[in-house]
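Margin note: ligand = zinc ion.
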Amino acid sequence: MCNFIAKQRKNSSNYIFNRVLIIYFMPINKEEQVRNEVVRGAKAIFSKGLVEAGEGNVSVRNGKKEDFFITPSFNQYETLKEDDIVHLNFEGVPLSAGKLPSTEAKMHIAIYKSRPKVQAIIHTHSPFATILSIVGKGIPVIMEEMYAFLGGSVEISKYGEAHTTEIGNVALNALGIKNAALLANHGVIVCGKSLDHSVKFAELVEKLAKMYWGALQIGKPNLIPEENLERFQKIFDSLFANYPRSMRKKK
Ligand SMILES: [Zn+2]
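Resulting structure:
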């Protein structure tokens, strides 16, 4: 956990310097850069075994605009390339020719619309998390790192039919102000301030699900008491939280 947090701290202190560099060495093509990020994220979750071909999806918001780039329907991770990525606006209208977008694009749109700081969203069917989602179990706070990165427990959503706006709404409810949730009988949804955050969160949810599942096999898992979590709340708020201030009171 510490290395990743140290890297994020360094990243935020380098932010202004990097912005200056970006202004002087403006990327040749911003769109290509975002497409490349989506491909990078997709290949990362595939290589970590969090998705199989044809399932799950990755999207990255186009800066502060009301459009984003998402993996195509029935995504083939191994051969995925920048041209396969689909550009959509928040009405779900394609802004690029080529492949059809992921059928879960509506869920991504619902999250981008209500969480303006979210820059990247990942949906997986990672096995242990999906097992928990099938029996309707979320993941309580069993390790400190889930508080720092995800904002606390990972809640389980109500059932929402795949490919509908409804699943976007149930995902949002389960997320609350946090960065991860389980989708009932389906899988995982995570959102982050950057693609790297989202990849990390998707990986972490699967690891936690595996640990929780394993702990349940041999005993009653002990949960970490709330009072021990204050300093992790500070790490979450300063580095990984991405909810609007107006949502804070709902916590
Ligand atoms: Zn799915």
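Residues 195-218 form the longest helix (24 residues).
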